[in-house]
Amino acid sequence: MLIKPTKMSHSRKKIVVLSGAGISAESGLGTFRDSGGLWEKYDISKVATIEAWHENPTLVLEFYDARRKQIIDAKPNIAHFSLVELEKQYDVTIVTQNIDDLHERSGSSTVLHLHGEILKSRSEATDAITYPISGDIKYGDLAPDGQQLRPHIVWFGEDVPKLTEAQEIIKKCDILIIVGTSLNVYPAAGLRFACPETAKKHLIDPNAVLLDDKSYTHWRGTASEQIPLLVKEFLSAPVS
Fold this sequence. Notes:
SIR2/SIRT2 'Small Domain', 2 domains, 9 strands, elongated, disordered N terminus
């Protein structure tokens, strides 16, 4: 009996995109460093720390309810949509510091949120189970375990539960793309050090972040300017 040879399938190269607030800022979601935005109206230490939650949970809930409304009204931009195009030829994972869902709404299939998700809530006692938010969270709203509901956000002063998982993902990448992050906020900024030496590394930033690190290919500009160009280059190159 003649047995036809089967074609060997090559696993697709793994791309990890480490994204930060800069990519969402181009959808109108300002970072806490921007002037004139929602963050400027609040003292970060009063709304984005675990101490703030214990001192004044009503104020914290008020802030995140306002932030949630902004995010619901925002739309993904060309940078988000361009990253989805990479999935045609690559195995792509987005590791994001952002709490919005713009990567998901643009169509990205694998997204890991390091700092939580603003459209979800959880018990203040545990982050093991999350619940979708249909409206605002009010002080006195309880999770099924009887504890106060809180935003599913990792605040300053809290551990980052997804950090180890993110490190393991980056350790296995063939290509690392960093976009929209100042690389000033740790421990997330340290994730780049988990990247294999053999991986190709790209940094998209309008400023001189890491310009002295020659292991990176630098794309000087905003996410919406440079990501479409990078994606076009990747998709036109032969996949080895």
